[in-house]
Amino acid sequence: MKKLVFIISFFSYSGYYAGLAILFSLGLGGMSRFYSVPLRLFLLISMLYLIKNNISNIRFNKFPGIIPLFIIFWCYYFIKILYTENIDDTHTLGRTWPEYIFYSLSFVIFPFITFTLLSLDKFRNTIVNGFIISGFALGIIGIYLYGSLLTSGIGRINLITYQTGEAVLNPLSLSYSGALTIVLCIYKFVILGQIKKPEKFFLIITMILSFALFLLGSSRGSIVALAFTLPLFIAYSPARIKLKLIVFSIILTPIIIWAITASGSNIFDRVTNTSKDGGGGRDYLWTEALSHFLESPIFGGRIEIGGIYPHNLIIEILMATGIIGSLIILPIIFKGFQIAFRRIKENKEDMFMVLILIQGFTQHFFSGSFATATLVFLPLGMAYSCYNKKNEY
């Protein structure tokens, strides 16, 4: 089971994009579905196996009905998919309607249920290593394919597509993968400690590679994610470690600023221009989505407007499922946050799931579709695993 948990963790985010980058480099970007669909099917089967072998961990007399409510919400969401598909011809979905159901199952529903049933004490290191090693793999592949762009003055990786037509990875994928891998490496250094020299070297190399991905992606949202996660290490560290972290931060800040400037990354320009460009047009998307919600506030409207989603998890839930759907799923999300932070107080080694959760929630607050929010619902599942027999307080 540890091998399956590792594989699922590896391909949940960075590992998936590492494979996608290889396809793009071979000029096979148009065949990405022949990679992503079989991979998602394999992960689904793996998660079904884990669920089957861990279902007995649920303490039904104490379990708060989270999974039944979660399933009810998604059944309602599937109805809204069919509603959007069939309401008229002018507001078609961006994909075929079965894809929304398939991606919801593979990205959100089964990861949440699977990790709700797993024991964190048993699989903690496996999950963390899966995420870090996948970040390392993406870093190696990303630098090999796009490293030359760091000193080319291109500013952001997707701009090369406009200049040459070359297909590249989504810059958000690179930036968030880099940020996530960095904070998990810091978690290993600061929270776990007692790391052998070979692993220390590996983690340092991984952080350098991940920082390069962060520069190539130049995402404002990933900066926000780092701003929310890095202070956690100071907050939950002993006084001696706090002092070291503060000193390291002071020393590294000018080095990081120099690296951003020297690489030609346009991250500073993107941050300073946020008010001018409306966050990349998100103010318009959010306004349109909220207007659509107000047209049908109780039951919600379409899951997309003209094939476009609002790039904000909360607004998308309101728009698509209305007050009824929001009253089911939002308490599950916010209660999961509460449980996750409570678990840090019980055991600091559980901080990794909070780091993943903050990274994922920040990303899907500014971009990404609700139906693909793996980095939100996978760690939420870990938070709720406290209700099973092996993790109960």
Automatic annotation (TrEMBL):
Membrane topology designation: Multi-pass membrane protein
Any Gene Ontology CC annotation: membrane
Domain of life: Bacteria
Ranges of residues in domain O-antigen ligase-related: 206-329
Subcellular location: Membrane
Coiled-coil stretches: none
Membrane-spanning intervals of the chain: 7-28, 34-51, 63-80, 100-120, 127-147, 167-189, 201-217, 223-239, 246-268, 313-334, 354-378
A family per Pfam: Wzy_C
Keyword terms: Membrane, Transmembrane, Transmembrane helix
Keyword Cytoplasm among record annotations: no
InterPro entries: O-antigen_ligase-rel_domated (IPR007016), WaaL-like (IPR051533)
Protein name stated in the entry: O-antigen ligase-related domain-containing protein
Organism: Arenibacter certesii
